[in-house]
């Protein structure tokens, strides 16, 4: 199976500035929300949403944002390659899991009661 080589990108000064600007915009939008407490609520919410939208836009303009977008696109592409089970197969597998859980529950209960009987009744002699 061929794997693609990992390429490590070097963060430039401009990229770091974009990330810092996104952080400042985000913090500023939250601060504006609280500093505008004398204004109506809709104005405060609009200021918050505009600030967050600007911060997200600046973040996605940075290299980290572009990598995040590429990762999302590749994830969607890989998800489309998955062969999903049919409804019948999914139902059968669900029944198998439930049956296994019931069998394991009975096994663990039987093991617990056996150990309880051996330890308390035979070894320690405690009768309930």
How would you describe this structure to a colleague?
- The protein is an all-alpha fold and 128 residues long.
- The protein folds into two domains: 70 residues; 44 residues.
- It is 78% helix and 0% strand.
- Helix 1 packs antiparallel against helix 2 and helix 2 crosses helix 3.
- The longest helix has 37 residues.
- It is elongated.
- The chain starts with 12 loop residues before the first helix and ends in a 5-residue tail after the last helix.
- The mean pLDDT is 90.
What is the total number of structural domains? 2
Give helix % range. over 70%
Q: Secondary-structure element order, as H and E?
A: HHHH
**Which class of secondary structure composition applies to the elements?**
mainly alpha
The gross shape turns out to be elongated
Question: If you compute it from the alpha carbons, what radius of gyration comes out, rounded to the nearest whole angstrom?
Answer: 29 Å
Helix segment count? 4
Q: In percent terms, what proportion of residues is strand?
A: under 5%
Largest sheet: none
InterPro entries: SecE_bac, SecE_sf, Translocase_SecE/Sec61-g
Organism: Ideonella aquatica
Function: Essential subunit of the Sec protein translocation channel SecYEG. Clamps together the 2 halves of SecY. May contact the channel plug during translocation.
Transmembrane segments: 19-36, 42-61, 93-111
